[in-house]
Hints:
- The protein starts with 13 loop residues before the first strand and ends with a strand.
- It has strands at residues 14-19, 23-28, 33-35, 44-46, 54-58, 64-74, 86-96.
- Helix content is 0%, strand content 46%.
- The protein has a three-stranded antiparallel β-sheet with strand order 1-6-7, with no helix packed on it.
- The protein is mainly β and 97 residues long.
- Strand 3 and strand 4 form a beta hairpin.
- It has no helices and seven strands.
- The protein has one domain (14-96).
Amino acid sequence: MANQATERYLIPLTLNWGGGPAKELRTTYPRSTMEKYSFSDKPISVVTGRFAIVTAFQAPSVAGTFAQTGTLRYQACDDRACYPPKSVPVSVTVEVE
């Protein structure tokens, strides 16, 4: 599923950063395409294949190595159905000099 859900029953792709000293400035999601699936009367917005989600952070004012944590929420679909949404933890290391 894409970041912008095209139907009310679909869950958008989101990445929320909640833990760590860096401040999230913006998150850029991959470009979606409109695909027609058998369970829907009209095409829906989806992201397929390999993709990247990029977040720009404002670094903390203190030097060091920090863990920045968040949650990726997504809903997978195939030609027959969209499945219950999942949330998975995400962690990156931020090094400030």
